[in-house]
C-alpha cells in the first residue's frame, strides 16, 4: 500500500504501546486545505492518515506517535482516545445544505457551492458521498492496521461521533458512511 509522507508537528509521544482502535473522520476541507491545517502548529489538529477522493493516502503522523484527532473523547470508560487510537480522515465535505435548488458546503457560512456527486439523503439531511476509491483504500489501510495491531477489532473501529465528549459535539463520519460495507470487507 503506497502512502505519501508529509510530517505534521501536531503530535506527541504515546505513553504506551497500546494501539487498539481506529477513529474515522471526514475532513470538511479539501486535501490541500487539510494538509495545510495539519502542518500548522496553531491548529492543534492532526491525524495519522488522510484518504483523498481518488483513494490516495497521505500519512502525516507515524502510527507510533499520538495524533491530535479525537479531542475530548471517551471509549469504554477510557478518556483521551488519542492515546490508544489511529485517526483516519476521509476528504469529504460532510453535511450539505440546499438553498434555491443548489447544495452548499459549510465553508464560508454555507456559501461555498457544492459541485460534487449527487448527495446522499438521510433523515438528518444531505451528505457528500464517499468515493469508491476512498472505500477501497480505507479497507486496505484498515486490514493492514488490524493485522499490525491485533487489538483493533470490529468493535474498536468507531466514528468521531461515537467518542466525542459531550456526545453530539461531532457528527463525523456522518450518515453517508457505509459502516457495514467497510467492516464486512475488513473483518468478514
UniProtKB/TrEMBL annotation:
Catalysed transformations (reactions): Hydrolyzes the link between N-acetylmuramoyl residues and L-amino acid residues in certain cell-wall glycopeptides
Source species, domain of life: Bacteria
Protein name, UniProt field: N-acetylmuramoyl-L-alanine amidase
Entry's Gene Ontology BP terms: cell wall organization; peptidoglycan catabolic process; peptidoglycan turnover
Enzyme Commission number: 3.5.1.28
Annotated N-acetylmuramoyl-L-alanine amidase domain residues: 8-174
Pfam short name (any one): Amidase_2
Keywords on record: Cell wall biogenesis/degradation, Hydrolase
Database matches in InterPro entries: Amidase/PGRP_sf, Amidase_domain, NAMLAA_amidase_2
GO molecular function terms listed in the Swiss-Prot or TrEMBL record: N-acetylmuramoyl-L-alanine amidase activity
Record keyword Coiled coil present: no
Amino acid at each position: 500500500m503506497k502512502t505519501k509522507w508529509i510530517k505534521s508537528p501536531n503530535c506527541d509521544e504515546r505513553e504506551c504501546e497500546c494501539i487498539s482502535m481506529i477513529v474515522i473522520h471526514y475532513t470538511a476541507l479539501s486535501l490541500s486545505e487539510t494538509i495545510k491545517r495539519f502542518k500548522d502548529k496553531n491548529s492543534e489538529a492532526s491525524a495519522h492518515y488522510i484518504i483523498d477522493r481518488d483513494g490516495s493516502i497521505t500519512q502525516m503522523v507515524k502510527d507510533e506517535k499520538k495524533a491530535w484527532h479525537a479531542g475530548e473523547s471517551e471509549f469504554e470508560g477510557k478518556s483521551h482516545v488519542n492515546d490508544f487510537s489511529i485517526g483516519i480522515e476521509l476528504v469529504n465535505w460532510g453535511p450539505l445544505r440546499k438553498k434555491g435548488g443548489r447544495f452548499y458546503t459549510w465553508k464560508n457560512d454555507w456559501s461555498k457551492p457544492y459541485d460534487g456527486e449527487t448527495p446522499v439523503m438521510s433523515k438528518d439531511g444531505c451528505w457528500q458521498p464517499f468515493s469508491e476509491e476512498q472505500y477501497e483504500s480505507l479497507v486496505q489501510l484498515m486490514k493492514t492496521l488490524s493485522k499490525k495491531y491485533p487489538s483493533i477489532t470490529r468493535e474498536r473501529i468507531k466514528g468521531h461521533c461515537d467518542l466525542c465528549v459531550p456526545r453530539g459535539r461531532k457528527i463525523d463520519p456522518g450518515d453517508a458512511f457505509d459502516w457495514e460495507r467497510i467492516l464486512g470487507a475488513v473483518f468478514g
